[in-house]
Amino acid sequence: MEKYDSIIIGSGINGISAAIYLQQKGLNTVIYEGSSTAGGSTKTEALTLPGYKHDTGSAIHPMAYASPFFTTLPLKKFGLEWVFPEIPYAHPFLDGSALAAYTDVEKTASQLEIDKDSYLTLFSKITSNWEAISSDLLGPLTIPSHPFDFVRFGLKAIQSAEQLGEHYFENEKTRAFFYGAAAHSTLPIDVWASSSFGLVLSVMAHKYNWPFPKGGASSLVDALISYYESIGGKLILNHKVTDIKLLPQSRSFVFDLTPKQLLEIKNTALSSTYRDRLSNYNYGPGIFKIDWALDEPIPFTNEKCRKAGTIHIGFTPEEIKDSEALTHKGEISQTPYILIAQHTVFDKTRAPENKHTAWAYCHVPNGDTTDMTSVIEDQIEKAAPGFKKIILARSTKNTKQLERFNPNIIGGDINGGKQDITQLFTRPVVKVSPYKTSNDQVYICSSSTPPGGGVHGMCGFNAAKKVYNDHFKN
Question: Is residue 382 part of a domain?
């Protein structure tokens, strides 16, 4: 049986990233994947009707496009093309108006009337300095390379979205606009550090747009795997790992799994103390997801929404705040915050001619199986009258179905664990290195490690650097 320098278990974006980094260093690596296809949640399938391509998990990828690791890879040579919507994201209101996040900070601020100057104060400096702080933000806690810029950002990011929004913005619509980006965190709007997600995602829009891969999210995975195999890496599909002793001999094992799953692997030789700490890891809210085949584009009342790749639904700041608060109490909102992606407005390869797809989800309590179809469609109908009439077919997934699709989505949690202040930088446990377990040979590289959820590969990249430095650096 072949011997390896490193075996990576799980072919999600982070597992692939870890494998690529180690293979680039001249090591002999292999990825073991339990599914028939690579990619974890980053996949594209025909979920509704023939000819309609739907992203089964992640759909919009600004963090992948801007990833400090992915930008070093020749993915274009391996077929990856990026699609840039005219407007990164938009936020509609019941009176028919909408606010748009443009790639131009000034243009975005010009919509905000009384809040224009405050928006520029908040975002102009962060956007222009993003490269100086991004690598530090997308890794474990350490001494930052640009400490003053990092601290300035940190003092804003540590606040709740509600605190930051009320401090900078007087207009309710501007606050709802900011909360729409912040609520990607799945955190309540009034908890510490919830503003960090609103800040980072807004900067992504202003600096990079919110692009997505042409043809579907799987195009990103296909390019990554093709590159990995071109440099000598191996991918083994349909091989679920349950026992480390059943794997080939290796100097290191890197798991793209969440803590709950790692604890189920036999013979990892983890200490009882480490196992106890992993067992206390907290998972966040889940999602209820819908994919639609549509007869035409979503008929949003406001033109800005018709030109945006992503739409945030939450018609007032209070509605978004209440929706996220109820979720964390274990309750269901009847007017939930909703994320919508409309790819085919900009990418005609995903549907038959003159037809369209759409993708959406709302947050629900972890493990909840309530059917949110009508609730989600009713919310969209308020911003796009006639939406229900253009639905040709739909595919839905509740939290349990999502977990069956990808076992890393524990209880529907797409972020690999709760991303609150106690777990944002210390996930999965408080340790000198979050990637190294109590067994010197065993590492974890999933989104349950810093910097957490998102399609950026930085959890895998950071974990792989630790593996290399511990075992292979001369």
Answer: yes
Number of domains in the chain: 3
We report the CATH number of the domain holding residue 427 as: 3.50.50.60
CA 309 – CA 321 distance, rounded (Å): 23
Cα 54 off chain centre by: 17
Cβ atoms of 45 and 58 within 8 Å: the answer is no
Catalogue the E-assigned strands of 84-229.
87-92, 98-101, 212-213
What one-letter code names the amino acid at 278? L
SS3 state at 310 = strand
Instruction: Render pLDDT for 23-72 as a digit per residue (tens, 0 to 9).
Output: 999 999 999 999 999 999 999 999 999 999 999 999 999 999 999 999 99
Apex 126 CA angle, 124 and 127, nearest 5: 65
**Residue 466 domain boundaries:** 6-34+239-281+417-471
CATH number for 45: 3.30.519.10
Q: What is the pLDDT of residues 321-374, one digit of tens each?
A: 999 999 999 999 999 999 999 999 999 999 999 999 999 999 999 999 999 999
- The closest of 288, 261, 291, 285 to 399, measured between CA atoms, is 288
Q: For residue 98, what are the β-bridge partners?
A: 92
307 and 374 within one domain: yes
Q: Please check whether residues 30 and 48 belong to one and the same domain.
A: no
Q: What are phi and psi of 393, to 5 degrees?
A: -165, 160
The single-letter code of the amino acid at 167 is: H
Distances (CA, A) of 360 to 49, 88, 272, 291, 357: 17, 16, 41, 7, 10
In a domain, 228, yes or no: no
Q: Are 469 and 314 in contact (CB under 8 A)?
A: no
Same domain, 123 and 199: yes
Could you tell me if residue 232 is inside a domain? no
Domain assignment present for residue 454? The answer is yes
Whether residue 148 sits in one domain with residue 60: no
Measured N-to-C along each axis, helices 116-128 and 161-168 cross at an angle, to the nearest 10 degrees, of: 120
Which of 110, 155, 146 has the alpha carbon at shortest distance from 128?
146
Are residues 337 and 436 both part of a single domain?
no
Q: Which ranges of 253-385 would DSSP assign to H, the alpha helix?
A: 259-262, 272-279, 303-306, 317-328, 373-383
Residue 347's contacts (CB-CB under 8 Å, 6 or more residues apart) are 83, 212, 214, 215
Specify whether the CB–CB gap between 349 and 215 falls below 8 A.
Answer: yes
Burial of 314: CB neighbours in 10 Å, binned 0-12, 13-18, 19+: buried
Say which amino acid occupies 347. D
Please report which residue ranges of 231-386 form alpha helices under DSSP H: 259-262, 272-279, 303-306, 317-328, 373-383
Do 408 and 429 sit in the same domain of this protein? no
pTM across the whole model: 0.96
Classify 206 as helix, strand or coil.
helix
